[in-house]
């Protein structure tokens, strides 16, 4: 390297280099919640979509609960609904990992609340995990409480009748809740 320009050119060529299993510096920075590193890498040409289906930066940020990294990736044109066959969307991943901050960020950024993999929508997942906060946020962003999964079940079918999650779903469906005696 003979100059700063050469060093920057070399760095830009290397910024998207991946390990044998497809991890990049951006993927690792997102998984670790290092938003300053994420920003620097993106500014120097890192691809926000990742180089490998199993190592999408936005999926890792969603799974590990780093909404600031998600926001930065989307500023650089990452797709909030990027689909990976084995994982689904970032919203589904955030729900599966009970990362409420990531769920809220993805919803705020316009993620498709009804996208599903194998029939389970993000709402089905939140219900299975008995997360009233997540269920409420998903419903408030238009989650379809009548969507049927691959097992032929609606989210309400997956919850005990007296649970807080069940009450939220019944209210969303306009079903009257009887007072218990």
UniProtKB/TrEMBL annotation:
Pfam families reported in the protein's UniProt record: Ank_2
Ranges occupied by ANK repeats: 21-53, 53-85, 118-150
Family: Belongs to the ankyrin SOCS box (ASB) family.
Magnesium is among the record's keywords: no
Protein name, entry field: Uncharacterized protein
Mitochondrion among keywords: no
SUPFAM superfamilies: Ankyrin repeat
Keyword terms: ANK repeat, Repeat
InterPro entries documented for this protein: Ankyrin-SOCS_box_domain, Ankyrin_rpt, Ankyrin_rpt-contain_sf
Taxonomic superkingdom: Eukaryota
